[in-house]
Predict the 3D structure of the following.
Amino acid sequence: MLRPFFFIRPAIIKKCQKTNLKVAEEWQETAGKKEGEIYVRRIKGYIHSTESFGSVDGPGVRFIIFVSGCPMRCQFCHNPDTWKMQDGELKTTDELLKTALRYKSYWKDKGGITVSGGEPLMQMDFLIDLFKKAKEQGVHTNIDTSGAVFTKEEPFFGKLQELLKYTDMLMLDIKH
């Protein structure tokens, strides 16, 4: 059994090979077995904002997470303030899921969580971690993406396949 966290290492910033974007990871040390220390991976995402009662971003009432960062510059973009990733606030998946679950009683059997943006697929590790934890809580998951960063190249394609294991719905916004 893990004990509460007692030491936080500084965030580790990595660059994604395909998009050259930074992904923040935080590793927290916990008091573990006497044989050694245990590290728990806490992935953070760049979050622009959230909406607690969305009704147009998937079925039912939804908690919407707007991520920061988008490679497209659509002329009539609804969220141009989400274009720059570093303008977002770094938040862990646990923080966001805890906030979202406060509204679960309003979702009934159709609602859930939608991640929109910006471009959610630019923060793939964050999405995998968030959706995996959401599914453990019985939450319906949805991604609203333009698909602009899609590639069959690794590591993106393998991560996408992993993400889709925890994704109930994917809304593809086709851009011209």
Q: What stands out?
A: The two ends are 52 Å apart (CA to CA). The first helix runs from residue 93 to 101. The longest strand covers residues 38-54.
